UniProtKB/TrEMBL annotation:
Protein name as catalogued: P1 family peptidase
Organism the protein comes from: Bosea spartocytisi
One Gene Ontology molecular-function label: aminopeptidase activity
Matching InterPro entries: ArgJ-like_dom_sf, Peptidase_S58_DmpA
Family as reported in the entry's similarity comment: Belongs to the peptidase S58 family.
Top-rank lineage group of the source organism: Bacteria
Region described as Disordered: spans on this chain: 325-345
Amino acid sequence: MTQRARDFGLICGIMEPGPLNAITDVPGVKLGHHTLRDGDILTGFTALLPHDGNLFRRKMRAAVDIINGFGKSAGLMQIAELGQIETPLLLTNTLAIGTGFDALVTRALAANPDIGRGTGTVNPAVLECNDGYLSDIRARALTQDHAFAALDAAATGPVAEGAVGAGAGMSAFGFKGGIGTASRRFALDGSDFRLGVLALANFGNAGDLALPDGRRPVPPETRSQAERGSVILVIATDAPLESRQLRRVAQRGGAGLARLGAFWGNGSGDIALAFTTADPIDHDEPKDIVRLGALNENRIDTLFRAAAEATQEAVLNAMIAAPATTGRDGHHRPSLGDWLRANAG
């Protein structure tokens, strides 16, 4: 059974997690992976679906925060401008952005014959980190079929973490990185709501990691190097927020990264995308004026805290779940989980 931060007594913050402590605690959200392991190839796709319907016709309100912009993700400009997402989200390696883009376009065109004819085009959202230390990124081994496999594998329920999907070849703080998730639950007007975070962790200098209990794990053979990693955060909630509020919540993902010891170096692409499943946007809305729910701004601190805590825990879950890995040209990353087991008590 995969261990997580809480199995080692590492508690991030004071809020209660959701039942699964995962982004899939947000009702309707689905997650799937496809992992490619073949010699020097350690990579993949991770797919996140805000709902299982047609996202082009039933869009989700969203926002983006560029913590540090050394990245190549696709679709962020339109999301920032319009405040909505209209395709599933794909996470992958840097040089597979085009492949993921093509896969999302293929699926959107098949489901919506009016795209590019009776209506506009589509804005695929693909986010990336560079897994080239452990994986032969120049091989460009991922195909559209791999992206389709991740999309088709998306499901509710428990989430596979660690060296899976887009996280297969990632590194963090000198350890093996990867995919991790966490969630928080809270009440608004007497009703239960959830906020979940999915992290693709591929950032942080060796020796900088700070655990919630104050320890600072240092991987073996640590050497000083410039920060050239990246991290992608996807923050989902079922609380009703408009896009400006979602961007403010996305910004607090950065607070969770800072708690871990990150400083967002010059070469790091650190991106947070937040969306709500409340009040979907109808592509074919006939009314001139539509009513959307929004959070009382005086209550938004609850979601700020949830985003920071869940981000911190999601990254730790990614690192703890990921096994020690030797990849391209013998490059090696030890496991934070192994370090914690060796230093228990």
